[in-house]
Amino acid sequence: MKKDDLNNELSKIDRITEELITKEDILWQLGKKERQYQRQLIKEVSFFFLIGLILMTGFTISFLKLPILFIVLQIFVLILIPFLVYIENRSNNPIGRWHHE
Amino acid sequence: MSDRLLIDKAKNKNKDAFAELFLRHRDFLYRYLLKLTLNPDLSEDIVQDTMLKSYQNIKKYNGSSSFTSWLITIANRIYFDILRKKKRERNWIKQQQILGQRKLSWQLQQNNDRWSATLESFKELKPDIRAAVLLKHYYGYTYDEIGKLMGVKSGTVKSRVHVGLIQLRKGLLGDEEG
């Protein structure tokens, strides 16, 4: 096999015509990707925040013996979970999901 | 407007300038990825991820390499990160690869071309070897440049290209014998 054979075969792929992309398409895709990235970031931060909160609760109960703080933190967690669900629902809105798939 | 000017504007978070700049290089990037991944859908996904990463990090671009080379570096990292994903996702990635190759093969047929034995052997190469062979022999980059693009030493690139060409020859000889 010569180098040219490989290059000729690969150049076939270059000849495949792709649909025309405009600047507006790029801007739209960039906006969509930015929103996806932000949602992902919020989810990840919230997840680590939740883990931290659970650990803090555990330490508080075992070392300081303050059950009232535990209850307060649990209420906070109960607010955080619906918030996460809300974020998840927003990211799965039909238009976004269909397009993503 | 020159690339340099668009880059400067994009560094000031001018989305319009970035879109204009990316549009100029998108086609080259997509075709590079198509040859590397041999999967149209995956290539499109990586192009979009590269677009976001390059937009977010454009301030780090210092102009020491061409903008296209910088995009290829980012795209390579994204592609290899995808391949490194957890074991449970590997089967899914493999299935997508098969579907992607079928799609590419069909697109070639639409252009009156066919999926040849050479392309089949090229597909069988490990992705890091495939990338090295592609950048060296198709795009004509030097070993040093490829090393920078892939984040490895030039000696490693040389060895990957060498191994790749041997495997390609073996693959083709095997096909002829078979």
From TrEMBL, chain A:
The chain crosses the membrane at residues 41-62, 68-87. The keyword Transmembrane applies. Keywords: Membrane, Transmembrane, Transmembrane helix. It comes from the Bacteria. This is YxlC family protein. It comes from Terrilactibacillus tamarindi.
UniProtKB/TrEMBL annotation, chain B:
Residues 123-165 form the RNA polymerase sigma factor 70 region 4 type domain. Residues 21-88 form the RNA polymerase sigma-70 region domain. The keyword Transcription applies. Gene3D superfamilies: 1.10.1740.10, Winged helix-like DNA-binding domain superfamily/Winged helix DNA-binding domain. GO terms for molecular function: DNA binding; sigma factor activity. Keywords: DNA-binding, Sigma factor, Transcription, Transcription regulation. GO terms for biological process: DNA-templated transcription initiation; response to stress. CDD domains: Sigma70_r4. Pfam families: Sigma70_r2, Sigma70_r4_2. InterPro entries: RNA_pol_sigma-70-like, RNA_pol_sigma-70_dom, RNA_pol_sigma70_ECF_CS, RNA_pol_sigma70_r2, RNA_pol_sigma70_r4_t2, RNA_pol_sigma_r2, RNA_pol_sigma_r3/r4-like, WH-like_DNA-bd_sf. It comes from the Bacteria. Belongs to the sigma-70 factor family. ECF subfamily. This is RNA polymerase sigma factor. It comes from Terrilactibacillus tamarindi. The lineage of its organism: Bacteria, Bacillati, Bacillota, Bacilli, Bacillales. The gene is sigY.
